[in-house]
Amino acid sequence: MTVKSIAVLTSGGDSQGMNAAVRSVVRSALYHGLEVHAVQRGYLGLITDDIRPMDLRSVGDIIQRGGTILQTARCKEFMTLEGQQKGAENLRKRGIDGIVVIGGDGSYQGASKLSQQGIRTMALPGTIDNDIPFTDFTIGFDTAVSIVVDAINKLRDTMTSHERASVVEVMGRHCGDIALYAGLASGAEAILVPEVPYDMDRIAARMKENFEHGKRHSIIVVAEGVGKGDDIARELTERTDMDPRVTVLGHIQRGGSPTHNDRILASRLGDYAVRQLLAGDSGKALGIVKGELTATPIDEVIGAKKPFNKELYDLTLRLSQ
Ligand code: ADP
Ligand code: F6P
């Protein structure tokens, strides 16, 4: 039996491109003759029954907006079986038999539980962290990296004038991809990520040597999962006569207009989710790997860890002299 009516929600930490994904789900569903609903505030809205029908115009003028018009929430109650049953019941009583969940790894756990409640479920990777396996990129990551690169470009100007070192703390609790991609793209001298242990003696020695050979600025990008930028700066100060400045980019990385890459990723995945539901599929996490759309069992994705791109990491080290 195929779905007739579906819902969409955004959950967990927001990310740029979530709106483009919502737009894609809604417009694709309507194109295919389905009814489509929005759930406000993630799993919380499922439990409180904050669900409304959507039409073509309700997703107008949002493809370029950061944040999520559906808002997002962290909902403890949905972690209980009673919460999950209540959420599924609220969908069923409206005749909704399929749902698209847009969020990070925590939201994927919720999506898995929802599918166990008999709701046909598709999960889309919405997080700036790029920490979801079985997809090359998550929705929001490209925009977040662009923001960090832009910030480092600016820092570089003033660091060069003063011949200083700069420590830039970026987001990524368990995944160093924002630090890695932004560090490579902005010519950082060191990238500190949770996936690779760092040796501050070696980093400090290299930075000193580079300054002696005429380098006029130094940038260390540190993922928050490694530690605080202030602590890294202190470790550097203890080993050199540098007087580094620390910048914590924080939630700036999660806002602003999504890049075209994130809009396209979101648009492709939203449409694919609707087509998978129409085909009778459920319990899948969708992604794009080497340009191809992929559908992987959610539980397999939850149980896996995204492989770290050691090739890019080594390249950064080779180039940053
Ligand atoms: P993200 O999706 O960005 O990783 P969270 O980890 O905060 O964000 O998860 C978002 C929400 O997903 C949680 O607030 C909760 O409602 C739901 N969730 C997380 N883990 C589970 C779980 N094990 N079972 C059911 N729901 C969960
Ligand atoms: O969206 C993921 C993430 O940005 C992490 O990198 C970060 O640690 C976390 O969210 C912070 O989110 P919040 O302040 O909303 O708890």
TrEMBL record:
Per UniProt, residues of the Phosphofructokinase domain are 6-275
Q: GO molecular function of the protein, one example? A: AMP binding
**In its keyword annotation, does this UniProt entry include NAD?**
no
Sequence positions that bind Mg(2+): 105
Q: Which domain of life is it from?
A: Bacteria
Q: What Gene3D superfamilies does UniProt report for this protein, alphabetically?
A: 3.40.50.450, Phosphofructokinase domain (3.40.50.460)
Q: Where in the cell is it found?
A: Cytoplasm
Q: What are the catalytic residues?
A: 129
**EC number, as in UniProt:** 2.7.1.11
Q: Where does ATP bind?
A: 13, 74-75, 104-107
Cofactor(s) listed: Mg(2+)
Q: Which reaction does it catalyse?
A: beta-D-fructose 6-phosphate + ATP = beta-D-fructose 1,6-bisphosphate + ADP + H(+)
Cellular component GO terms held in the UniProt record: 6-phosphofructokinase complex
Q: Which keywords does this Swiss-Prot/TrEMBL entry list?
A: Allosteric enzyme, ATP-binding, Cytoplasm, Glycolysis, Kinase, Magnesium, Metal-binding, Nucleotide-binding, Transferase
Binding sites annotated in the UniProt record for substrate? 127-129, 164, 171-173, 224, 245, 251-254
One Pfam match:
PFK
Name the pathway it acts in. Carbohydrate degradation; glycolysis; D-glyceraldehyde 3-phosphate and glycerone phosphate from D-glucose: step 3/4
What does the record give as the function of this protein?
Catalyzes the phosphorylation of D-fructose 6-phosphate to fructose 1,6-bisphosphate by ATP, the first committing step of glycolysis.
Q: Which NCBIfam families match?
A: PFKA_ATP (TIGR02482), PRK03202.1 (NF002872)
Q: How does it assemble?
A: Homotetramer.
Task: Name the family the entry cites.
Answer: Belongs to the phosphofructokinase type A (PFKA) family. ATP-dependent PFK group I subfamily. Prokaryotic clade 'B1' sub-subfamily.
Provide the protein name: ATP-dependent 6-phosphofructokinase
Q: Which organism is it from?
A: Xylanibacillus composti
Q: Which gene encodes it?
A: pfkA
